Amino acid sequence: MSKTVNRRDFLKTGGVVVAGTMVLPSVLSGCFAGKQAVLPMHYDLNDYLNHFGVTRRLIAEVLAEGLSRGGDYCDLYFQHTNSNSIGLEENIVNRAASTVSFGVGIRVLKGDQTGYSFTEELTPEAMKSAARTAANIANASSFARTNPFQDRQFSNFYKINTPWEDVGISRKIPALEAINEKVFALDPRVRICNVSYSDSASYILFANSEGVIATDYQPMCTIGASVIAEQNGRREQNGYTISKRMDISMLNEDYLNWIATKSVEDTVLLFDATTPRAGRMPMVLAAGSSGILLHEAIGHGIEADFNRRGESIFSDKIGKKVAEPFVTIIDDGTIPHMRGSINMDDEGNPGKKTVLVENGTLVSYLHDRISARHFKVAPTGSGRRESFRHMPLPRMRNTYMLNGPHTKEEIIKSVDYGIFAETFTGGQVRIGPGDFTFFIKQGYLIEKGKLGAPIKDVNIIGNGPKVLEDMVMVGNDLAMSEAGWTCGKAGQGVPASMGQPTVKVSSITVGGRNV
Amino acid sequence: MNNNQRMELARWVSKYALEKGATESAVSISRSRSVQVDVREQRLDTIRENTENSLTLMIYRDFKFSSHTTNNLDRGQLEKFIAGAVEATAYLAPDPDRRLPDPSLYPTDLGRNLELLDPRQAEVTPEFRVQNAMEAEKLVREVDSRANVISASAGFGDNLNEGVRVHSNGFAGAWSSTSFGLSASLSIIDGTARPAGGAFARTRFLNQLPSVREIAEEASRNTLMQIGQGPVETGKYTMLLDNRVAGNIIGRIFGPMSARNIHQKNSFLLNKLDSKIGSDLFTITDDPFIPQGLGSRLFDGEGIAARRRVLIDKGVLKSYLIDNYFGRKLGLTPNGGSTSNIVFALGSRNREQIIAAQERAILVNSFSGGNASALTGDFSFGISGHLIENGKITRAINEMNISGNLLDLWNQLVETGNDPFRFSATQSPTLVFADVIFSGL
Fold this sequence. Notes:
The structure holds 2 protein chains of 2 kinds.
Chain A: E1 2-3, H1 7-13, H2 45-52, H3 56-66, E2 73-89, E3 92-110, E4 113-119, H4 124-135, E5 150-151, H5 173-186, E6 190-208, E7 212-231, E8 234-244, H6 253-268, E9 279-285, H7 292-299, H8 304-308, E10 329-332, E11 353-358, E12 361-362, H9 369-374, E13 383-384, E14 393-394, E15 398-401, H10 408-413, E16 417-429, E17 435-447, E18 450-463, H11 464-469, E19 471-474, E20 479-480, E21 485-489, E22 492-495, E23 497-500, E24 503-510
Parallel strand pairs in A: 5-7, 9-16, 15-23
Antiparallel strand pairs in A: 1-21, 2-3, 2-6, 3-4, 6-7, 7-8, 9-24, 10-11, 10-15, 11-12, 13-14, 16-17, 17-18, 18-24, 19-24, 20-23, 21-22
Helix pairs in contact in A: 3-4, 5-6
Chain B: H1 3-19, E1 24-40, E2 43-61, E3 64-70, H2 75-89, H3 126-142, E4 149-167, E5 172-188, E6 196-203, H4 212-224, E7 235-241, H5 247-250, H6 254-257, H7 259-263, E8 284-286, E9 309-313, E10 316-317, H8 324-330, E11 342-344, H9 351-356, E12 360-372, E13 378-389, E14 392-405, H10 406-411, E15 413-416, E16 426-427, E17 431-439
Parallel strand pairs in B: 7-12, 11-16
Antiparallel strand pairs in B: 1-2, 1-4, 2-3, 4-5, 5-6, 7-17, 8-9, 8-11, 9-10, 12-13, 13-14, 14-17, 15-17
């Protein structure tokens, strides 16, 4: 998992820019004849079919082609994404980029075996050829049938008023300038401010051989500042980013001020930062982004692709006690406007809320289609993919822990010597051994029950199941992270988020420097 | 579409952008075709066939700059795309350093053959891929009968990448390259833990790949050696860095060497040109001309001619990585903002000989998470590996961190092996660092 705070990550997630009333004119504008009055987030199924230039009949033909070698299931994932990014450096907005990505991914399953292909040309010939390629996973004479289509409707967890296609670059630039101005006004020690911005809108049309056909319009907006400040010759760098499934209303004064304030405060704090002792000690995690602990310590380990193959350290733990009774952990695609929310997953299932750990007991994995069939359970709405170029896998959405019985104050007070972790840059886990890490960008020492000197740049490493057992106190102050987290797995990045109340872990290995 | 047709399309895009109002333009068009086959339990697990097209247009309009990428190469659609892109650029702020590279920086000889294209790639059949993956998967689970195997997998993949680049001030270049990959992995039960290990090789030519047996044995060994892993005491240890993962640490120095970070004063290498930043053993060269090299090239992503350059000589920083835009900002001649193949000055012993010479040390062969600050050089990474005592590996280690400062670390480099890693553009040997802080128990 990494945060989209640097420029390269932004460009990776960012995309198109535009002008006047339209950002980039849609590459598909020819398809909209007679339908211009309908905004994309209000498209019905026929609008999506027109958008991609396909018909129900053609989709059925391509699905049939996918099943022509004996596969037992086929799905098509049409995607059109326009993305824009803009950058401010040295007080001017002098960089913009846009990306148009368009195509269909075709997947054929034979049991738990997968054939996958995609095409960027949506002609009948190109799609059928790609379907025949994916069909090669199977080699049998029996043919599965394609069912008649039934349009699936979903709740909308990211209602917006203005589609990104209607917002020109000139309406976005002032937001970057406002953050820059505020950052320099806040503290004379600021030397450099870089502001990065990106937005994107994806049109998704999904259809499968079981007759499911469904659509989604997925907006995203990310804006953040990276600051370098200097004091007595010492320089420090930090930043703050907000990313949500929102429209232009995200560029409001409150958010812009908050980004500027946090990025300056979190940078100048580092002038006084020290390094903790190396070795094992208690750790208190601040409410909010510290949900990265859940993401790494347990989240990946209970993605069911690892578990259907028995490769995860959690493979034999369903129904077992894994944590104290006050620990309940949830993965939720239904939180309004959160970065990891999805109206439908990338296998045509509705976005859902899945309880993973209930009162200390592991109750569910996160499933994709293959694992749900393997374990004979209902889909959890967590089959996700980076784009039409990738096959879906079980993935997290927004992962968080519910409130517990303790207060932040009593948790800090209980620690004699340890660390308080507040902001993070990323983490990683090894699924089988269960050791996971996350990197603390900034936090505090705790000495004799009180917050002490700031700390920075420390890696934490622990064992997932062990750390779950060692969560000895849970606060009552759950907060969600609003940062631009992108979760990586098998070469695919998907947007995700997380949250947590204040939590105490009784002992964990801290990568300090004082031996 | 072949490269000649791509070149024709790129010239048209470049010209059309100028007609629509761009002052200068740069266009690249590429296609990547890859096939990957993965096998599990002697059955096909996945087959993936990908063909991706990409067109990127960079527009300079009165010193205003923007970049636009699409995968739709239809000329009718491209006309709208280009017009919109040029129009959008007008809204940005002008910056006198936003210009194409000076033509004197472009390569003069594009005829040199770096041997990046293996003609055998076109002849690879689906059966061949499946057979290689099947055989590797079979071998990886056969290698040691003591192991309690949960699952094994193996994969074979190949790729053909072709493309062209055209700049409106005179540059036009093309490339074609192939690559092949062979991998195997194993997952076993060890008490409550389920260690997994693997091996992977990537090469430009098919005949450079190791045998499936070599890959399978390495994967199996890497997994079995993790049995019983756990942390050891916190303290200072000699660190041996496995040549396969050394790139994770070496790569951390290139960001701070970039002209962007130097210009932004976001680098611990600021004002360090021609200064000592590491021990006498630390010598690395960026060599773009290695035949069949994974990082080899004649020009970089800005059309700037590739050249062989010593980056660090006996611990002295000899060069920054200077791209076009930040080179102009710094008043330095651009020499290429990215690296190609990284080659080390080698020592005289291989990994086994180095291990045998250690009294007490930790061999790091895997990194997990962590970060390093480009500004301060402070780093902290999770690791796993092996404890070495009296010249022998005595136990498996995981759940530990290493921490320190990159400048200190490179000054603690006390030995380089004679065993450069062949399957990466970073051809690091085994590296040995004295007195590294490990946190564990």
